[in-house]
TrEMBL record:
Motif stretch (Interaction with polymerase core subunit RpoC): 92-95
Keywords, sorted A to Z: Cytoplasm, DNA-binding, Sigma factor, Stress response, Transcription, Transcription regulation
Main subcellular location: cytoplasm
Pfam families recorded: Sigma70_r1_2, Sigma70_r2, Sigma70_r4
Ranges for domain RNA polymerase sigma-70: 92-105, 268-294
Subunit structure: Interacts with the RNA polymerase core enzyme.
Transcription found in the keyword field: yes
Entries under SUPFAM superfamilies matching the protein: Sigma2 domain of RNA polymerase sigma factors (SSF88946), Sigma3 and sigma4 domains of RNA polymerase sigma factors (SSF88659)
Name of the protein in question: RNA polymerase sigma factor RpoH
InterPro entries: RNA_pol_sigma-70_dom, RNA_pol_sigma70, RNA_pol_sigma70_r1_2, RNA_pol_sigma70_r2, RNA_pol_sigma70_r4, RNA_pol_sigma_r2, RNA_pol_sigma_r3/r4-like, RNA_pol_sigma_RpoH_proteobac
Database matches in Gene3D superfamilies: 1.20.120.1810, Winged helix-like DNA-binding domain superfamily/Winged helix DNA-binding domain
Superkingdom, taxonomy of origin: Bacteria
Residue ranges of the region described as Disordered: 195-236
């Protein structure tokens, strides 16, 4: 992962030309050489930064945007290092932060009187947060706004190892403006671990983790694959029946439905004969012909 002259296009950068000029995290090199490269890029003075931002805003000068991005890559590395405790590759965090930096450059207004670094930090952190939440666990650990806030602040709020006591839970809930229930729920999620559903017996025996769900979530009546196969066959047959009934004339369809498909209060041949003004034998003949057509459909 070293600095390279190759081009890289970030997936959601504000300008592809700006993204293409970034130093590349190349898997054939090292992360240290990339960090060393970006640290050698000079930091811009405030006035130079404003001039470059105006050039990009007013004239879409991509060279100015590139210089703004390059001069702040070291800051992205600094922010990314603060999230190393989540167990994700630092290189991936840096790449996500670079995307946030480019988005910030595109939206930066030099007339607001703030430095780009102060404006960009929110965009950089937002991209890293999204990446962490998507990759920290197989199952999403935080989906609501309150859960996201707790995810990134709960561990910093804990003053010791172990579970929070009632007083600490109340203090965290008050500081972060969330409910105590949400604090307890997030603490439980952070303390849990992912378990493969279908680990082999050897995996279960050689680890200190609890058995995988596949080891004890068994059907007492039938193998799940056979149950699924039977349900699929049943659905297929119902679809064929519906298609066959649709091809019958209205009287034949009514006779079959009332004679065979009603769960309760099925009609007799004489009931139907009285309704249609024919003999019971005629109803039987119509029923027989309709059944032959349905068998053909099956």
């Amino acid at each position: 992962m070293t600095q390279s002259t190759e081009l890289v296009v970030a997936r959601s950068a504000g300008s592809s030309a700006v993204a293409a000029s970034l130093p590349v995290l190349n898997p054939l090199g090292s992360l240290e050489s990339y960090i060393s490269a970006v640290n050698r890029i000079p930091v811009l003075e405030a006035e130079s930064e404003r001039e470059l931002a105006r050039e990009f805003r007013d004239y879409n000068d991509l060279a100015a945007a590139q210089e703004l991005v390059h001069s702040h890559l070291r800051f992205v590395v600094h922010v990314a290092r603060g999230y190393k405790g989540y167990g994700l590759p630092l290189a991936d965090l840096i790449q996500e932060g670079n995307i946030g930096l480019m988005k910030a450059v595109k939206r930066f207004d030099p007339e607001q009187g703030v430095r780009l670094v102060s404006f960009a930090v929110h965009w950089i952190r937002a991209e890293m947060h999204e990446f962490i939440l998507k990759n920290w666990r197989i199952v999403k650990v935080a989906t609501t706004k309150a859960q996201r806030k707790l995810f990134f602040n709960l561990r910093k709020s804990k003053t010791r190892l172990g579970w929070l006591n009632a007083e600490e839970v109340s203090a965290v809930a008050r500081d972060l403006n969330v409910s105590e229930r949400e604090v307890l729920e997030m603490e439980s999620r952070l303390s849990g671990t992912d378990i493969g559903f279908d680990l082999t017996a050897d995996d279960d025996e050689n680890s200190h983790r609890p058995p995988s769900p596949a080891a004890y979530l068994r059907s007492a009546e039938e193998d799940p694959s056979q149950l699924l196969e039977r349900e699929d066959e049943s659905s297929h047959q119902l679809a064929q029946l519906a298609q066959g009934l649709a091809e019958l004339d209205e009287r034949s369809r009514d006779i079959i439905t009332r004679r065979w498909l009603k769960p309760d209060d099925k009609s007799t041949l004489q009931d139907l004969a009285d309704q249609y003004g024919v003999s019971a034998e005629r109803i039987r003949q119509i029923e027989s012909n309709a059944m032959k057509k349905l068998r053909t459909a099956f």
